[in-house]
Each structure stands twice: as C-alpha cells, then as structure tokens.
Design brief:
The protein starts with a helix and ends in a 14-residue tail after the last helix. It has a single domain (5-242), classed as TIM Barrel (Alpha-Beta Barrel). 41% of the residues are buried. It is α/β, with parallel strands linked by helices. It has helices at 5-11, 26-33, 51-61, 77-85, 99-109, 124-127, 132-139, 149-153, 155-159, 171-179, 192-207, 219-228, 238-259, and strands at 16-21, 39-43, 67-71, 90-93, 141-146, 166-169, 211-216, 232-235. Helices cover 46% and strands 15% of the residues. It has an 8-stranded parallel beta barrel with strand order 1-2-3-4-5-6-7-8, surrounded by 8 helices. Helix 2 packs parallel to helix 3.
C-alpha cells in the first residue's frame, strides 16, 4: 500500500499543510493538488460536493502524490466507508461530542477486529495498492472534530478513545459553542478566551498522545498555529482563494485605471477598420 505521507511527516516531527476543497470540480482539485500541499481534504459537509464528484476529485489529485482526505457530512457509517473505499487516506468527522461518538467514528474507519468497517475497497485497491486490506488500519487516519461546548467539556474522554489519531478544531463552531454570538463567526480567533480554549485542546491532545489539527483562514494564522505546536493546519480553501484572487485582480485594475491618465486612442490606418 502507498504510504500515508501525513503519518510520515508526523513521524519526522514535521507539520502538515492541508488544503481544502469545497467546489465540486475535479479540475479545481487537480489544480489545488499541484500547488505543494502535503494533504488536501474534500469537504462533503459544507462544501457543494456529492459522492460521485468527490470520487472524480480523488482521481484528479492522484497524479500529484498529495495525500487525500475527506470531511464527511456527519457521523454516519455509509459515507465514511464509501469515501475510504474511494481512496481517502483520512476521515475528518464533524460534531463529535462524546467518547461514545468517538468510538463509533473509529469503528467505522477500522476493519474488524478493531472496528466494523465493511470490506470492499473498490477504488482504493487501485489508487492505494492491491495490498490495501492488510495495511489500511495502519495507514488511514481518523480525526474527530472538536467544535462544541459539549465536546470541549468531554475533551479528555474523547482523546482517550483507542484508535483515534487526532482531533481537528473547527474554530467557527467552537466559538459559537463556547461564547454564543458574543463574537463574529469565522476562523483565526484572537479573543483571549478562544485562544486559551484552542491551546487547551492542543495541550490536552498532545498529553494524550494524539495529534492536534486546526482550520485556519490565513497563512499568517496557520504559521502561528504551527509555532504553537499544531500537527496539521488547513490554509483557507478553494472558495476563499478564488474569491480573494478575483477581488484582488479587479481592485488592482480599477486602482490602476483611476491613477493612470487616459491613453490616446490608436490611430486608424487608412483603408482599414
């Protein structure tokens, strides 16, 4: 089986830079995968991506060698197992609030006797290797999202779940869960209580021997998270990158037009148009 590069980087003490795909397009996935990310996650929860398109996106990313993951819509065994069979090397599951839910998540990702995953790696046998069945439990990673007040209260119990590789912080929902609507929603939290909560999750995760991952909105915050000690950082997403680049291009052009004098019209050529 082709090795999971996320695990290799973690073993070497290196952080993982993760990309994020919310647009349902194999070509977008192919472009993103060629930009140097260590891993890229397809978002089936909030992204506009369905299963069949997600499979095409996994296929489009294969040539780059980037490690593919998927954020599934919910703690539901069908989609988790289907995304693994399609070739995802990691599952990020939202709204894991209790130890029991974390145990169910792990069971859907692992084959018996460590879980209840049904065997049928239809595409993974080709994309990951014909010996997939013998190594998948070792190479596929399982990440539980910590993003509610209930999950934060149950953090230590969740972290103690056997087979859980790490936790993934969703800072937007975590802020809503811990503070209500006291602050704007979004990533890159600067409020002292939210920074403290994020660092608490990081410290408790490492103390429990599991990895800590954080969703970020900007490279600057992702770099700060790595300096804090996060093992994986997501840097924005395809939607935001496209919107920011487009806006920047339009604003730059309008700015240049407002500053430059009007150009003289080209002289017409006699007999021409």
């Amino acid at each position: 089986m082709i090795a999971n590069n996320i695990l290799r980087k973690w073993a070497a003490g290196e952080p993982v830079l993760n990309g994020w795909l919310s647009i349902a397009c194999p070509f977008t996935a192919e472009i993103m995968a060629a930009q140097g990310y260590d891993s890229i996650t397809i978002d089936l929860q909030h992204g506009v991506v369905g299963y069949e398109t997600a499979v095409g996106m996994l296929q489009a990313m294969r040539a780059s060698g980037v490690t593919p993951m998927a954020r599934v819509p919910w703690l539901e065994p069908g989609m988790i197992m289907k995304m693994l069979d399609a070739g995802a090397y990691g599952i990020i599951c939202p709204m894991i609030n209790t130890r029991e839910e974390a145990e169910r998540l792990v069971s859907y990702v692992r084959y018996p006797p460590h879980g209840v995953r049904s065997f049928g790696p239809t595409r993974a046998n080709f994309s990951a290797g014909a010996d997939y069945g013998g190594f998948a439990d070792r190479e596929v990673i399982c990440l539980a999202m910590i993003e509610t007040a209930e999950a934060f209260a149950n953090l230590e119990a969740i972290l103690a779940t056997p087979g859980l590789d790490g936790v993934y912080i969703g800072p937007a929902d975590l802020t809503l869960g811990l503070t209500g609507r006291a602050y704007r929603t979004g990533f890159d939290r600067e409020e002292p209580e939210m920074v403290a909560a994020i660092l608490t999750i990081l410290e408790k995760a490492h103390r429990a021997g599991v990895r800590a991952c954080l969703h970020n909105g900007t490279p600057a915050y992702a770099a700060k998270a790595v300096r804090w000690g996060f093992d994986l950082v997501t840097i924005s997403n395809d939607v935001r990158l496209l919107a920011d680049a487009a806006r920047g291009s339009v604003e730059a052009t309008r700015g240049l037009l407002s500053e430059a004098p009007a150009a003289a019209a080209p002289q017409s050529v006699a007999g021409g148009y």
